[in-house]
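Structure in, sequence out. Go:
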């Protein structure tokens, strides 16, 4: 009985805090629509994690703009269902589903090999897929899941496709990071959380890694006509919080404050298409506008160190 009272009291306190902080939450959850009318006829786009949430809405929007959209999905069946629902909204949508499991480097390599065989150009790469606050599990290659999928998987995918992107220039890379980078730091002494694991901190670390990767890649690609920017999509009603009971509860309790997946896709779409961003690189965006970056996300030494550690874990050498 006492436990029940405490839980209810806790929920009331959280509810009061949410009401109190509503204006702040709204600031990060509302607004920001991509106003660009840019067309993407003849362009090829690749989106990871495109079968649900923000990724699916991004795929729909870019398909309506005329792009050939490759939806890279872990579960091909779910991917085909998503593609079918996109075609129901827009019958002319040129969407294709390909299998990609970012938790398995052999799947990433097989995916990239097939893509390089079948596609002549890649104009936009959107590193969108993500996993949040899962229990401690390892990827097929022994990496902690959140760093493995959110950062290392995309790091390898981008490495394998960078030549194609450069040949297709002007090209853009959009990395979906998060506001969560603000409370993240890179634990170089235990990058893969083998010593200790906290699911929230591991998520924040992976989202900071997304941001640092985008900035370092942008620096390295200067002059190549391939731009790289990172994005915070806002707080979005999606399946992302499925591993956290508390967040699932809070997200359903306060779903009115949250963005729809369609609204959450707007900043990714903006960074992918807006004409005024054609040469802008190494920046972070939220609500279709430049956004502030925490000091740890601006540290060039950390970015380089993470780049080297990631390359070493994956056994790759960037020569581009
Ligand atoms: N929802 C939010 O409030 C929020 C806030 C900030 C950042 N983000 C980021 O936005 C991105 C999209 O999240 P979402 O909210 O649409 O959640 P979501 O759960 O609906 O989408 C995540 C997608 O990633 C895919 N994915 C997960 N593991 C994968 C793997 N091993 N291989 C391939 N694909 C895999 C899932 O299948 C899914 O399609 C994520 O990177 C997330 O970190 C979301």
């Amino acid at each position: 009985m006492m436990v029940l009272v405490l839980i209810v009291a806790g929920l009331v306190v959280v509810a009061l805090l949410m009401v109190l902080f509503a204006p702040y939450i709204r600031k990060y959850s509302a607004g920001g629509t991509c106003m660009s009318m840019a067309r993407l006829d003849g362009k090829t786009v690749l989106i990871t994690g495109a079968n649900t949430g923000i990724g699916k809405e991004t795929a729909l929007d870019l398909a309506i703009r005329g792009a050939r959209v490759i939806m890279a999905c872990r579960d091909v069946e779910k991917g085909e269902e998503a593609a079918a629902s996109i075609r129901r909204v827009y019958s002319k949508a040129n969407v294709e589903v390909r299998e990609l499991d970012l938790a398995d480097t052999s799947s990433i390599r097989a995916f990239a090999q097939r893509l390089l065989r079948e596609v002549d150009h890649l104009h936009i790469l959107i590193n969108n897929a993500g996993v949040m606050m899962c229990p401690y599990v390892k990827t097929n290659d022994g990496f902690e899941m959140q760093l493995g999928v959110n950062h290392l998987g995309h790091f390898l995918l981008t490495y394998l496709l960078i030549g194609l992107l450069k040949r297709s220039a002007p090209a853009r890379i959009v990395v979906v990071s998060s506001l969560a980078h603000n409370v993240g730091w890179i634990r170089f002494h235990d990058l893969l959380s083998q010593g200790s694991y906290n699911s929230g901190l591991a998520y924040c670390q992976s989202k900071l890694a997304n941001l640092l990767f985008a900035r370092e890649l942008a620096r390295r690609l200067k002059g190549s006509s391939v731009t790289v920017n990172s994005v915070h999509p806002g707080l979005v009603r999606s399946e992302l919080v499925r591993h956290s009971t508390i967040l699932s509860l809070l997200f359903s309790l306060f779903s009115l404050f949250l963005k729809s997946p369609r609204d959450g896709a707007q900043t990714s779409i903006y960074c992918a298409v807006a004409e005024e961003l054609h040469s802008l690189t190494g920046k972070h965006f939220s609500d279709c506008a430049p956004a502030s970056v925490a000091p740890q996300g601006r540290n060039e030494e950390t970015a380089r160190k993470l780049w080297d550690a990631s390359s070493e874990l994956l056994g790759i050498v960037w020569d581009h």
